[in-house]
Amino acid sequence: MKVAFATDDGIRVNAHFGQSSMFAVYNVTRGGSELLELRRIPDIAAQDEMGKIDSRIQAIEDCTLIFIMQIGASAAAKVTRRKIMPVKVPFGSPIEEQVKRLGEMLQGKPPMWLAKVLRAEEEGAEVNGTNG
């Protein structure tokens, strides 16, 4: 599963969703994890709040989870409508630590919120696999 982390340095979750300058995108599975890429958000001075949110959603639209420090209500609603679950973590949480914890959850019995996300992802893959 692809997972994004709102970050300003690529090392820690230290950004609010709407102000994040980049997202570290990892592939996390039961067998391990890898950093896929750092997706930088272009700084468009004239962009309004909705434009900022939309550009960030476009940057992570292939992800299942987004780890963030904070997210506004309207942004959270838009993100979840795209079937991306926002996960709030404390400011400065090391990304590697969050990736490791997520991997451990996948290996054991995932908490209910994660099991639900995994089920939805599997159903989406089945639908896409049979229709695509």
Mean pLDDT equals 89
Strand share of the residues?
25-35%
User: What is the CATH first-level class name?
Assistant: Alpha Beta
Strands in their spatial order, largest beta sheet: 4-3-1-5-6
Rounded to an integer in angstroms, the radius of gyration calculated over CA atoms is 15 Å
Low-confidence stretches: none
Termini gap: 19 Å
Query: What is the helix content?
Result: 40-55%
Number of helices: 4
Shape: globular
CATH fold-level label: Nucleotidyltransferase, domain 5
Total number of distinct structural domains = 1
Helix-strand string? EEEEHEHEEHH
The major β-sheet equals: 5 strands, mixed
Number of strands: 7
The CATH superfamily name is Dinitrogenase iron-molybdenum cofactor biosynthesis domain
The CATH architecture = 2-Layer Sandwich
Assign the structural class, choosing from mainly alpha, mainly beta, alpha/beta, alpha+beta, or little secondary structure.
alpha/beta
GO biological process, one term: nitrogen fixation
InterPro entries: Di-Nase_FeMo-co_biosynth, DiNase_FeMo-co_biosyn_sf, NifX, NifX-like, NifX/NifY_domain
Organism: Paenibacillus stellifer
Protein name: Nitrogen fixation protein NifX
